[in-house]
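Lab manual, section 2.4: Encoding a predicted structure.

Procedure: take the sequence of the chain (342 residues), apply the prediction step described in section 2.3, and record the output as structure tokens. A sample record is shown.
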Amino acid sequence: MLTNPSQALLRNSDLVHNHAVLILNYEGDTLPKALLASASHVCALALDFHHHLIMQPHAAPNLQLHFGHQLPSQERFDSVIVYFPKAKALAPYLFNLAAQHLKPQGQLIVIGENKGGVKSLPKQLPDYFDKPLKVDNARHCIVFTSELNRQPPAIKLQDWYSQYQLQTPQGEITICNLVGVFSEKKLDAGTKLLLENLPKMHANVLDFGCGAGVIAAALLTAQPTLKIDCVDINAMALASCELTMQANGLSANVFASDGMAQINRQYNGIISNPPFHDGLTSTTSIATDFVKDSAEHLVRGGIFHIVANRHLPYSDCIATQFGDVNVCAENNHYKIYSNIKR
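Recorded output:
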């Protein structure tokens, strides 16, 4: 089933007839494959690892699939399609990236939901593109087209992240935060409580949902002998985490994982401010799967140490997997669950 933006694109597939097409930031469906009915060649870059995994089985000589924040080549295309991002701060980066891979006078196509900010495109598009034209309004989405009118500036990652000092209970650390990655330039309340109640860990530790690397950097600052794996589903977060490690002279193994599906080792500790929030219909199942998977990836005696909104349903599944529920700290909004695998 195609998402509404993808359906709106597909009904305008004549825009890319016989084109070599690049798709940036595509959603969790198979639109890149469907577009081959019109395009001659499709290359797709997912910034969400789950979306990449959905498409991966369909890879073919005329359908190249990549995950990350940039393409591995300098290939240029007749058309580039950009899915307008939910994190609006990411949009200018995607437009710059699209321009890098367009042929001169190449076509830019932007698709987004009406309620998602795409209506502001005429004010957001850089001046190396022509004024965008609205070509369709369907499925509660708008399709815009534009044309590359001059050479864009080269992409330099340092132009796209903010670097700032963060005071943590473990000391001052430098955070590098790429556009589109959640950041408050201060410790969010949940992470602050977590870092104020860090256990002594040893050997191999997993930082699940690492984001820009705040927890891993603080943990390595306090306990530099640890070997930490940092995983996330978001390409910009992973790149941010790598930059944060470099900025602090620290070392961690940073890689993408859809949940824990790509993790194939055991840990002495798992630490996380899990990226699950109130309002998700699947919150309960996500929390349950996360706790179950964590228990399976811990050695006996391993520490499971997370912070969560106190209203989220963790207690029952922790009790099921670990035999009891240990809340080592809490406040009006968050709880720190800290259990040892028996």
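Check your result against the sample. The first strand starts at residue 20 and ends at 24.
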